Amino acid sequence: MNADSVLEPQRWGLSVENTQSLTQCLSGFWQRFQEDFKTKTRDIGEYAYHYICGQLRMENKRNFANIGCNMGVPGQNMQHFMSNSPWSAQAVIQHVQAEIAATPELRGDVLILDESANDKKGNKSAGAARQYSGRRGKVDMCQVGTLLAYTNGSEWTWVDGELYLPEQWFTQEMAELRERVGIPPERKFETKIELGWKMIQRVHANGFPFEAICCDDFYGQSGEFRARMNDAGHVYILTFRVVWATTRKAYPQTPTFQ
Fold first, then answer.
1. How confident is the model at residue 2 (pLDDT cuts 50, 70, 90)?
2. C-alpha separations of 149 from 96, 157, 168, 196 in Å
């Protein structure tokens, strides 16, 4: 197998022996979350399993049609599951948070607020626009998700997320497209910083344990954001340009980062 392949275990720090139980681990993971994909009339959890398997097993072109073809289910059904089925994304996210919170060895953890861009060929997908893509380092046609990740130094995962909708998406000219792609009519324009603060408040209200919050200079340069963190009593490590800003209470002296 090509050493650069995503299917090569050593690329992910795994030995071949450690991969023997991955199928059982994935099945157990899905079974724990299966209840989150049940509606009043249907159990659509099997599509969640197929979607996860497709994402893990396919090296590229992981769209709904290709995942469906690879997993032996209609691509249209897969797209309907992700786009139209009435399961709650927040319920799944809260389940992830609850499992982390209930695992004693996952302590000494921090939250990382950042964003991730997904390339798009056109502007007909929710939030798609010409905007800055950190992945490409330039302005391009893409979707941008504002994400809140968790890490304790060895394990990491994201624990909340919001799709960023550029301000142009809230113009009258975009009203029909907003409805077509399923953007709730009550949704209003929010900056990435506002979305980030909303997610921090949300995980805190859910009782999710964390010791500090880390962000890059995009968020660190916002005085209002830093003031909100101070008022809430959160320990934070933010950057603005080349200067590190920290809460004095947690770090009485400027820390040194290697």
1. low
2. 12, 6, 27, 11
